[in-house]
What does this fold into?
Amino acid sequence: MKFTNMLLMLGAVIALSSGCATKQLVPLPDQTKVIEDPSKARIYVLRPIFLPPLIPMTVSDGDQKIGSTGPHGYLCWERAPGETEIRSKSENTAVLPLTCKAGEVYYIGQHARVGFSYARTALSLLSEEQGKEKMTKCKPPHIK
It folds into this structure.
């Protein structure tokens, strides 16, 4: 009986986690191009892990809210060159300072860890190779 209960709980978690999709509030650049507007920089925030499955994490570029990530999701946008701070908010707020250059692509890993009452978040700048590899584990966002 315990095994059946565990299977039911696992099924419920998987079903519920599908409702926690990645949602993007800004336009998604053409994904068939490396950069849609060469006068801008392209930024990807990647969340290639499944756990914790039900916790969306809000992402902002400076004061502009970009969207929220769910498991196996990514956000992508283009911005003007210059200094910014990429923020990821969950139980805590992680901040990654970034100097964007025109024509460059930046990959940022979004990490989730167990928190006190919610998941905690962290950000790290990835190499192009790491970013492209993690992209294979992620799905594009739903545009709002």
About this structure: Residues 25 and 144 are 5 Å apart (CA to CA). DSSP finds two helices and ten strands in the chain. The chain has one domain: 2-143.
